[in-house]
Amino acid sequence: RLAQVATAIAHDLPTRVFWVSQAGYDTHSFQAKTHAHLLQELDQGLHALLEELESRDRLKDTLIMTMSEFGRRVAENGSKDGAGTDHGLASVQWLMGGHVKGGLLGPRPDLTNLDGNGNLRHVYDFRQVNGAVVRDWFGVNPKELFTADLQHLPIFATTKAIR
């Protein structure tokens, strides 16, 4: 699916947003092996997409963003070989592209400072990430889309609205 996205971008298809999904992360048992396979597949697909876009000089005007509908809890459930984790609140998002600042935004997750339900405490609301993308990539005021007053996150090295 990512190869199809690269082809569409290379051929200047007038589409501004592509959505690709990868199922299988909703694991509550035997998680280590499953997630290792899924993350390897994701890594290989994203790596190939980035290389293809760069070879066609299109990475500079492309933003790649991952997201998940749920995070994972820290504590394992089940036996050692069959262990997994339950749904959690905090998660990670990766952003890649020619204008994205590299590195980790915010502190590393504190695996010992959990909420009362065993969830990681998020540092940034996912709407802050989305708001920065809406503002700095698409050139739209995030207040038109989000009711919360969100702190702006400096995700991009330069602001490049693609309107």
Describe this structure in words.
The protein is mainly alpha-helical and 163 residues long. It is 28% helix and 6% strand. The protein has helices spanning 2-10, 31-55, 126-136; strands at residues 63-65, 71-72, 87-88, 95-97. It has a two-stranded antiparallel ribbon. A two-stranded antiparallel sheet has the order 2-3. The longest helix is centred in the N-terminal third of the chain and has 25 residues, at 31-55.
Q: Largest sheet, if any?
A: 2 strands, antiparallel
User: Would you count the extended β strands for me?
Assistant: 4
- What best-fitting shape do the alpha-carbon axes yield? globular
Strand residue content: 5-15%
Give the SSE map.
Layout: H1 2-10, H2 31-55, E1 63-65, E2 71-72, E3 87-88, E4 95-97, H3 126-136
Helix pairs in contact: 1-2
In short:
The protein is mainly alpha-helical. The chain is built from 3 helices and 4 strands; from the N terminus they run ααββββα.
Keywords, separated by commas or semicolons:
mainly alpha; two-stranded antiparallel ribbon; 163 residues
